[in-house]
Amino acid sequence: MLKKPIGIGIENYKELIDKSCYFVDKTLMIKDLLDYRVKVGLFTRPRRFGKTLALSMIKTFFELELDEDANVVDNRHYFDGMKIMEAGDEYLQHMGGYPVISMSLKSARQPTFHLAYTLLCRQIAGEYDRHKYVLQGDALSKTDKQRYQAILDLKKDEALYLDSLRFLSECLEKYHKTNVIILLDEYDVPLENAFFKGFYEEMVDFIRSLFESALKTNDCLQMAVMTGCLRISKESIFTGLNNLDIYSILSNNFAEHFGFTQPEVEEMLCYYGFPEKIQEAHDWYDGYLFGMTNVYNPWSVINYVREAASNPNAFPRPYWSNTSSNGIIRELVEKADGLAKDELENLIAGGTIEKPIHEDVTYGEIYDKQENLWNFLFFTGYLKAISQRFEGNKIYLTMTLPNEEVKYVYENKIQEWFDENVRKADFTPFYQAMRAQDTQKMEEFINNQLNFSISYHDEGERFYHGYLLGILGGMGGYKILSNREQGTGRPDIIVRPNNPHHPAFVIEIKRVKNFAKQDAACDEALGQIKKRGYATELLHDGYDKVICYGICFCDKYCVIKTQ
């Protein structure tokens, strides 16, 4: 039996159905929107958790859509067999009942305010163009038509766009004689981008005016649904908006409508013939807790299933981490204090942290407190809550890494960024101490470095081996050899000078779990170098001097001995 294709990257609901792609039915979100009588709803979820597709589905259901000849388009068939069709007439009577304004703000991810503003104006003009049938007939006055046409033509008049969504809703209400639904996707992208690009205040002013006029004092509004990764409140873009309902990952309501639940993942894997992969999918892509609902990362699951369909023996991969921005983690690592670094290591090792969490995250305060960065990691999907407690009016969450996929990000990206910092440092004092056999200065240098690094103890000796190779890689005039046959074994590191009159080095590394054992481990390393003749070949090659080092690491402290 031919299976349905998997629509990777298709975020348009109609396209997904038209192509008969596999669809995890989330149409009961429509029922919940009506049951909860949502006026202005903000849904915050991590990236790639189905927000854009959800808005497209909502638009298809509610929109009173007209074709180029102003004839009504019947979209009912797009919901054939879907759960919403069994909800009852009280819900289905809303199908095709409202003009819809639908816009994504992701185009504002630009390097300057001018470009970001211009792209947002084009998005607005595009929505005006989609509804330009309102210019026909006498529903709009001559003045309204002139103003409408000015936005269509992208006239350079900033005042036109500050309340352009409100004006469009007024025009649609006059034409259709019914209120309007507004859908705004990735509403927080302009603010996030503006913060990191340096034009934050300008963008806040524009977005505030656009939103307040459309969502706060708009008598033509039936319902508005916005999506994003974070709730942005203290910038006052929602000042006085007392009809705003916020549904974050802490909320129980609507929790199952973003991400895949356990039954949905099992059904999908069984449909494609992979019931044996249920546990593997769970380990890699499950672990997110929205309200009290456990969910999988949908983007990773559909990629995982499609990969398995072409190669049943394929290993799971970090699909989400390869598409998501990891910049926030980098900011945390580069600015983290010693305690935060220890907490990161604990997380990577499978541990937990407890932190106060608040939903009103603000970009302007990212660096004011360390806890703000943990907030970002939590709400963007890099941490999951496993328990909570209240202390006064604060929520304290105990958090851990959600799954193997996110652990991959922490392990690989953090190590990569640390290696970059290693390469940027000035290691001249270490090289000088190494040539002079000043083990005290060598120890001080490395211990200071390790104190400001990230390591994860599952790597054991390999982490320290790689760390030393990174340091020694900048030693000009030397060739660095790792685990090469020498004498009757494989020394950890051989440092061969191009000039035979300069000293060569043999380094053997040990790692112990008890500080009291470091001296003995260094002696063992030096004994191993002598017993297995690691320096013999260098002496036979004519080097004047060979210096041997035994280096033992325990956590972030090293002891060095020489002979």
Can you describe this structure in just a few lines?
It contains 23 helices and 17 strands.
Counting DSSP E segments of at least 2 residues, the number of strands comes to 17
Overall shape: elongated
Decide which structural class fits the backbone: alpha/beta
- Major beta sheet, strand line-up: 2-3-4-1-6
**DSSP strand (E) fraction?**
15-25%
Summarize the structure in words.
The mean pLDDT is 90. By secondary structure, the chain is α/β, with parallel strands linked by helices. Helix content is 43%, strand content 16%. The protein is elongated. It has helices at 13-18, 28-35, 51-62, 89-92, 113-130, 142-152, 158-162, 164-176, 189-197, 200-216, 262-271, 278-285, 298-310, 319-323, 327-335, 338-348, 370-379, 404-424, 428-435, 439-451, 461-472, 518-531, 536-540, and strands at 40-44, 100-104, 180-185, 221-228, 231-232, 244-247, 288-290, 293-295, 353-357, 360-361, 384-391, 394-400, 478-482, 493-497, 504-511, 546-554, 557-562. It has four domains: 25-66 and 80-254, 3-Layer(aba) Sandwich (Rossmann fold), CATH 3.40.50; 257-311, no CATH class; 325-405, no CATH class; 425-562, 3-Layer(aba) Sandwich (Trna Endonuclease, Chain: A, domain 1), CATH 3.40.1350. The strands form five sheets. A five-stranded parallel sheet has the order 2-3-4-1-6, sandwiched between helices. The protein has a five-stranded mixed sheet with strand order 13-14-15-16-17. The chain has a three-stranded antiparallel sheet with strand order 9-12-11. Helix 8 (164-176) packs parallel to helix 10 (200-216), helix 15 (327-335) packs antiparallel against helix 17 (370-379) and helix 19 runs antiparallel to helix 20. It has 23 helices and 17 strands. Strand 7 (288-290) and strand 8 (293-295) form a beta hairpin. The longest helix is centred in the C-terminal third of the chain and has 21 residues, at 404-424. The N and C termini lie far apart (72 Å).
